[in-house]
Amino acid sequence: MLKGEPYDALNAEILDLLFKTKDRIRQYNQLPPSDNEGRETAIRTILGSCGEHPIVNSPFYCDYGCNIHVGDHFFSNFNLTILDEAMVTIEMDYPTPYRCACADEFPQSWPHERQRKT
């Protein structure tokens, strides 16, 4: 997946990571906006790494989380979606716009690969 090669999205290990991340995201999105400390602690359990004072407004969505790295003072507005089948790095002091979607996804299989399997 991270090497840009086709992967089996139904692999048990990949699914386990995906579902654990989805559970953490659900919990994060339910936290009160006023709970700054709880939100920062929770987002740090989702993302691969983040700098000082990350602010991620809910709702937030991603696939695995561990492939996302953000710098200091990262700010995202509402409805940030990051498809992190590959590494996604966002530098410090970079605000994301409302309803931003970041996709760095390698298709599970290209058409010629699907045809070869049939």
Overview of this protein structure:
- This protein is an alpha/beta fold and 118 residues long.
- The chain is 31% helix and 20% strand.
- Helix 1 (12-30) runs antiparallel to helix 2 (36-46).
- It has helices at 12-30, 36-46, 111-117; strands at 49-50, 55-56, 60-62, 68-70, 75-76, 80-83, 88-90, 95-96, 101-103.
- It is globular, with a radius of gyration of 15 Å.
- It starts with 11 loop residues before the first helix and ends with a helix.
- Strands 1-4-7 form a three-stranded parallel beta sheet, with no helix packed on it. Strands 2-5-8 form a three-stranded parallel beta sheet. A three-stranded parallel beta sheet has the order 3-6-9.
Summarize the entry for a quick read.
By secondary structure, this protein is α/β, with parallel strands linked by helices. The chain has three helices and nine strands. A three-stranded parallel sheet has the order 1-4-7, with no helix packed on it. Strands 2-5-8 form a three-stranded parallel sheet.
Order of helices and strands: HHEEEEEEEEEH
Low-confidence stretches: none
pLDDT averaged over residues: 83
Nearest-angstrom radius of gyration?
15 Å
Task: Record the strand order, biggest sheet.
Answer: 1-4-7
- Proportion of beta-strand residues: 15-25%
Largest sheet: 3 strands, parallel
Structural class: alpha/beta
Q: Say how many strands there are.
A: 9
Q: What percent of the residues sit in helical stretches (DSSP H or I)?
A: 25-40%
Number of helix segments?
3
- Cα separation of the termini: 22 Å
How would the global form be characterised? globular
